[in-house]
Prior knowledge:
Shape of chain A: elongated
CATH topology of chain A: Mth169, Chain: A
CATH superfamily of chain A: Phosphoribosylformylglycinamidine synthase subunit PurS
Low-confidence stretches of chain A: none
Structural class of chain A: alpha+beta
Strand content of chain A: 35-45%
CATH class of chain A: Alpha Beta
Strand order of the largest sheet of chain A: 2-1-3
Oligomer: homodimer
CATH architecture of chain A: 2-Layer Sandwich
Largest interface: A-B, 30 and 30 residues
Mean pLDDT of chain A: 97
Distance between the termini of chain A: 12 Å
Amino acid sequence: MSAYTATVTVRLKHGVLDPEAETTKQALERLDFDLEDLRSADRFEIDLEAESPENASERASEMAKRLLANPTIHDYDVEVDER
Amino acid sequence: MSAYTATVTVRLKHGVLDPEAETTKQALERLDFDLEDLRSADRFEIDLEAESPENASERASEMAKRLLANPTIHDYDVEVDER
Lengths: 83, 83
């Protein structure tokens, strides 16, 4: 068993409205920043013990499917690093 | 001018309590997942036009300082990729 950190990034699917990101973009523009687009995402860094990076990645994907992401509106990806 | 995407990751500083992450961890444990720790972070993907990656990175850092992060409780980092 080795120690891994799995990073799960949960994004809204393309086409799903994100009023919070739109508001943040407008607030930056009011502060005179020049930007074309802003997207927000949630990032979960999960420390876990696993037999292999593949096993850590599978378990983190399962966590995303069961709890962290809503498959109707979210996409997610998983990255695994050894700690 | 080239098109860049600057990714700003905003995390709570070490030692700042994160009740939402703690609740998420407990919910995963109730679903029989085995994990040691879970940290949450906000990720902003900002599309902007800039003269160089350094300029894009500086502007994104400034956005983090002015609006995206609260320096009392947050750390942030910035990554820049060409689009």
